[in-house]
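note to self — DONT lose this again. spent like an hour looking for the file last time. sequence + predicted structure for the chain T wanted, 66 res
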Amino acid sequence: MAVIATNWWAAKQAAAALPVTWAEGAGAKLSNEAIFTDFAAHLELDDNALFVLTGQRLRSLPLRPG
């Protein structure tokens, strides 16, 4: 939505008068809890590891197409 006005009050009044219908889309039902649960589940999979911390070094692991 965009409103062009000569001052803040006119813009606020015009924006409030516009009917707005939100399309929530496919991600509307996602929650932080669901996302972090999914992340945690994928951390347990050996073939999905991106990095391994070994001592003071961080080395990357090759990724295999799945």
